[in-house]
Amino acid sequence: MKSLSLSNVETVIVFRALAPLFVSVLDAIFLGREWPSARSWGALGLIALGAYGYALTDEKFQTQGMMAYMWPTLYLLVISFEMAYGKKIITGVDLHTKSGPVLYTNMLGWPPMLGFAAMGGEYGRLYEHMTRNAHGASEEDGGPMLPPVGLALLALGCIVGTGIGYTGWWCRSKVSAASYTLIGVMNKCMTVLVNLLIWDQHAPPEGLVSLGLCIVGGVLYKQAPMKNQKDPEIELEPLVKQGSGVQG
Questions:
Q1: What pLDDT tens digit does each residue of the chain (248 aa) get?
Q2: For the chain, how big is the Rg over CA atoms in Å?
Q3: pTM
Q4: Which pick of 2, 47, 136, 181 has the fewest CB atoms within 10 Å?
């Protein structure tokens, strides 16, 4: 959220698109995967090229330099570690249900969330809002304490967030950490479209083209097999040849 408050949506998405580069390395070193193939390295390189092209068109980068990317960079490092560590948990810990990791991640997320809320001054703003309502402030001044629309959006967010938690961990158990990271990058396509429709703080056309390169790179990526495990396509070749030689 800090990254989104200081940068536009596309900046955060591009840094998110760089995460597969880092996660692919962690996959090979810690999670027993082979190093990416030439095709996959090319796809990841295309993602990096798109990110670099985007940076050249970003006004915040031109005026503020690397300080504009401090929080997005921190987000990139954290999300890369989280993707690799999450895969390590799902493969190395005997969890009988998907509820376990969902509950653990939400519980572990509480202390940092409360800490960031304190750092952002949210408790003070909540206290001021409650004080105004306690002294009979009008809705025009402070607004209702619990507006119906806000409660409805909060409930909807809880339902969607719960669904994301369960489906996310299920998907994580089926693919590699790098592939799961790429699925998240592809999911941001809709975010870009929504951003173009409803917000005025978005990248210029050249930046969107660079973002498109990142997405194309994600589509071309091929998941690396486990070490000491042959590529399924290679294993099928002898069977295909055998079948073609069978006489009726």
A1: 555 565 566 667 777 778 888 899 888 888 888 898 999 989 888 888 887 787 777 665 555 556 667 778 888 888 899 888 888 877 777 777 777 778 877 888 889 888 988 888 888 888 887 787 766 655 455 556 677 888 899 899 989 988 888 888 888 888 888 888 888 877 776 676 667 667 665 667 777 788 778 778 878 888 888 887 655 444 434 434 444 454 44
A2: 23
A3: 0.64
A4: 136
